[in-house]
Automatic annotation (TrEMBL):
This is Malic enzyme. (S)-malate binds at R144, N399, N443. One of its GO terms (molecular function) is malate dehydrogenase (decarboxylating) (NADP+) activity. Belongs to the malic enzymes family. GO terms for biological process: malate metabolic process. It comes from Populus deltoides (Eastern poplar). Divalent metal cations. Prefers magnesium or manganese. A divalent metal cation binds at E234, D235, D258. The active site is at Y91, K162. Coiled coil: none annotated.
């Protein structure tokens, strides 16, 4: 470790005024700092005061990124201690705006940028990264950032934000995390004409050129970091996301958060909601607005859970789930024109063009929005759901807030306060007829940090759907009656490190059961007790 002035410029080891007198002497810091010794707790208090003075969320985001670049320890301490307040700042929804303006606010690189210029030398590029013991990589090509579309190279905000949560919420060491953006160009004309755009100024490469670059990256990662490195695909467009997951799931430890993470967190919410509405998943009818990565991923995991609970064939389980896309209800008469990932959901039914007509005809008990289009759960749609369900379940999952299918206030008001509601982005509590409802957030941050930690600590080299089911069950088990009384189907985020430890333990135990774990001589019960002990604890942030 460096000492003296260089230590104060090293974000991984700098503690600012928290260096003790003994540390200042040992590391040649005497005279380089004011004489006062200020604890991390007091530094956090001061920084929270400063951050709260900012009026705009983007200003708070920039302040947090600046803190991460100069004092990593303090950044994670602040994020963990104030997770419910700061999570929407470092991730959804503020990270969406940050990606849109990334070129304007860019100061220092926070990850690896692998563009078409690096084709043929990606392994050498990976060696340029200063940390060598990488355990998890979050990678995007920036083509479908949240509900905001193609942001090209500026999608780097997503891997950076996700990996900050891997450490803060899941306890993965910061030095073991690597954010990556694969830059193959962008089809966003506004960015191509933006003088501050930081990526390749060309239209997106596709086909063989794209596939070869991604394959070289995947091969280089495995050669450089080994079989146990977790590669999380993030915000790839539908036409690539499903193909990449299918192609590499048999050769690499891969996980697509948009498809699998979203599915796991939504399934957890539904399993928890059953304790309020009653019945099993097989007793309910599900209708989705949106049939992309998130919609079909959630639907498939629900069907898998139903199949395992009832011994029903997957084909039969899928018939309880209906999807609506931009052309209407997905039915068998459309099968020939459908993308391959939509075809399993093409059931026998007459064509229906609108969501409202689909709701009135199918009469679902659960309505799930993954469309990326705001205000599509209209008053008529919500009132229809409430007309034939005592407690309709409505999940408005699209991000950021502006793309949410409806607001929490709309859902509670239009259903006369009877809805069980959760959203993808956070909403403030809603008061309706004297009762305060606290809307839950179906945030992937409940799942992916603990899921990833479970894979890492088990030594698994492949991921399986059964592990996602285990993660869902672990999360649902954390919801208490007190949470239900407030209208929540997810536990509060203030307990997220405990929740992540539970999820990690259950995932590791499932890896053991499936023969994917290096814990070959340890019983699953012992793995469970190992979860929280394995996490990178805050006291490790000290020198």
């Amino acid at each position: 470790m460096v000492g003296g002035y260089s230590l104060l410029r090293d974000p991984h080891h700098n503690k600012g005024l928290a260096f003790t007198d003994a540390e200042r002497s040992a590391h040649y810091l005497r005279g380089l700092l004011p004489p006062a010794v200020v604890s991390q707790e007091l530094q956090v208090k001061k920084l929270m005061y400063i951050i709260r003075q900012y009026q705009l969320p983007l200003q708070k985001y920039m302040a947090m990124m600046d803190l991460q670049e100069r004092n990593e320890k303090l950044f994670y301490k602040l994020l963990v201690d104030h997770v419910e307040e700061m999570l929407p700042i470092v991730y959804t929804p503020t990270v969406g705006e940050a990606c849109q303006k990334y070129g304007s606010i860019f100061t220092r690189p926070q990850g690896l940028y692998i563009s078409l210029k690096e084709k043929g030398s990606i392994r050498e590029v990976l060696r340029n990264w200063p940390e060598k013991n990488i355990q998890v990589i979050v990678v995007t090509d920036g083509e479908r950032i949240l509900g905001l579309g193609d942001l090209g190279c500026q999608g780097m905000g997503i891997p950076v934000g996700k990996l900050a949560l891997y450490t803060a919420l899941g306890g993965v060491r910061p030095s073991a995390c690597l954010p990556v953006t694969i830059d193959v160009g962008t089809n966003n004309e506004n960015l191509l004409n933006d003088e501050y755009y930081i990526g390749l100024r060309q239209r997106r490469a596709t086909g063989q050129e794209y596939a070869e670059l991604v394959h070289e990256f995947m091969s280089a990662v495995k050669q450089t970091y080994g079989e146990k490195v977790l590669i999380q695909f993030e915000d790839f467009a539908n036409h690539n996301a499903f193909d990449l997951l299918a192609k590499y799931s048999t050769t690499h430890l891969v996980f697509n958060d948009d498809i699998q993470g979203t599915a796991s967190v939504v399934l957890a919410g539904l399993v928890a909601a059953l304790r309020v509405v009653g019945g099993t998943l097989a007793d309910h009818t599900f209708l989705f607005l949106g049939a992309g990565e998130a919609g079909t991923g959630i639907a498939e995991l629900i069907a898998l859970k139903i199949s395992k609970q009832t011994n029903m064939a997957m084909e039969e389980a899928r018939k309880k789930i209906w999807l609506v896309d931009s052309k209407g209800l997905i039915v068998s008469s459309r099968k020939e024109s459908l993308q391959h990932f939509k075809k399993p959901w093409a059931h026998e039914h007459e064509p229906i063009k609108t969501l409202l007509d689909a709701v009135n005809d199918i009469k679902p008990t659960v309505l799930i929005g993954t469309s990326g289009v705001g205000r599509t759960f209209t008053k008529e749609v919500v009132e229809a759901m409430a007309s034939f369900n005592v407690k309709p379940i409505i999940l408005s999952l699209s991000n950021p807030t502006s793309q949410s299918e409806c607001t929490a206030e709309e859902a509670y008001t239009w259903s006369q306060g009877r809805v069980i509601f959760a959203s993808g982005s956070p909403f403030t509590p809603v008061e309706y007829e004297g009762k305060t409802f606290v809307p839950g957030q179906a945030n992937n941050a409940y799942i992916f940090p603990g899921f990833g930690l479970g894979l890492i600590m088990s030594g698994a080299i492949r991921s399986h759907d059964e592990m996602l089911l285990a993660a869902s069950e672990a999360l649902a088990a954390q919801v208490t009656q007190e949470n239900f009384d407030k209208g929540l189907i997810y536990p509060p985020f203030r307990n997220i490190r405990k929740i992540s430890a539970e999820i990690a333990a259950k995932v590791a135990a499932k890896a053991y059961e499936l023969g994917e774990s290096f814990f070959v001589r340890i019983h699953p019960s012992a793995i469970c007790s190992y979860g929280s002990q394995y996490m990178y604890q805050l006291h490790h942030f000290l020198l």
